[in-house]
Specification:
two-stranded parallel ribbon; 8-stranded mixed sheet; 248 residues; alpha/beta; elongated; 51% helix
């Protein structure tokens, strides 16, 4: 299948690197120098944005939301399916800016590079199967029934890796402070997340915590420290604030 990727930023690169070879990809952008670097690193073709024809193409639109109209003005033709990766940009806004037969909002995360994205999708139901097939190539694809659910998922799954990265960095730093070598601290932290991913697929988070916390033990002492320092409230607020930002 041929795909056109409009945009050559970090998310675009993550998606292209994650897609299998059965997809023939052309990346489209403003700077030929940057496009050449992108194409060499990702093994795809490239084209300049000005007057680019998207007629009958499946297009992944991955630019910054604030340059939607500016970028759209440089395109011509009518796409077949437009897959938008623009956070907080509604289907109605996309329809007003770019001509396409079908519109899909999608929000992958940076795990796409390693085929481990959690990608949320919504839009024209007739393209649901194609959308899930495409984005399942870079991880797990989940179709939701409304744009509100997609925005909530963006705050949780799209922004989530950054929140977890902050937690991982803090845990590794704490281990170093206690006397562990940096490389070991990083390895143990990474393995914690790997193990937890397997656990949470099958168990409730509260049950996992309760299973590990023995009476007057080390883990419950650490959990109390997290509660005393507002860890739960901080994560709650992080997701809420990210969602609220999408509504502005």
């Amino acid at each position: 299948m041929q795909l056109t990727m409009i945009g050559n930023g970090a998310m675009a690169k993550s998606i292209v690197l994650g897609l299998p070879e059965k997809y023939e990809i052309t990346v489209v952008g403003r700077s030929e120098e940057k496009l050449q670097i992108f194409a060499n690193e990702c093994g795809c073709g490239y084209a300049l944005l000005d007057d680019y024809d998207i007629s009958d193409q499946n297009v992944i639109f991955a630019v910054k939301p604030h340059v939607l109209e500016q970028t759209a003005a440089k395109l011509r033709g009518k796409a077949k399916v437009l897959f938008s990766v623009l956070a907080g940009t509604t289907l109605a806004q996309l329809q007003n800016a770019i001509k396409a037969q079908y519109y899909i909002r999608t929000m992958p995360n940076v795990g796409a590079t390693y085929n481990a994205s959690t990608t949320t999708l919504t839009g024209d139901v007739s393209q649901k199967e194609l959308s899930i097939e495409l984005f399942s190539s870079i991880g797990k694809a989940v179709w939701v029934d409304s744009e509100k659910e997609l925005d909530i998922a963006t705050a949780l799954a799209g922004s989530g890796p950054a929140f977890l990265a902050l937690a991982a960095e803090a845990m590794a730093d704490a281990a170093v402070k206690c006397g562990m070598r940096r490389d070991l601290a990083k390895e143990f932290t990474a393995n914690n997340f790997y193990s937890f991913a397997k656990l949470i697929e099958n168990e409730n988070p509260a049950d996992i915590k309760d299973k590990i916390c023995s009476p007057a033990g080390t883990t419950i002492e650490g959990v109390k420290a997290l509660e005393d320092n507002g860890a739960r409230k901080a994560f709650f607020s992080a997701v809420e604030k990210a969602y609220e930002r999408l509504q502005k």
